[in-house]
Predict the 3D structure of the following.
Amino acid sequence: MSAVIGRDALSTEENKQLEFLDLFHSDFMCQGNPCFIAFVNSVMASGVEGIRSLEASLDLAWDLLRLLPKGTLTRIPPSLLDQFYQRQQGDKGKQAM
């Protein structure tokens, strides 16, 4: 949509969604590597060094989800939102039980 009407014409929420998509692809899916296929090939050749842990992946996922307004995350159970949405980087690893 932004290619048709321009990013400036989008609402704040739509711009947040585009930011989320860009960061999800580059930081979460590609792990910061410009070419994920090349990254996978290098990992296959050299072992598992450089692969993000599950905990780091979940922390990054929540960091990305926090870019979006909490009210738009309707598919995430409220109990998980209450537990993880407000956490800051310094709180990682400290779960409220």
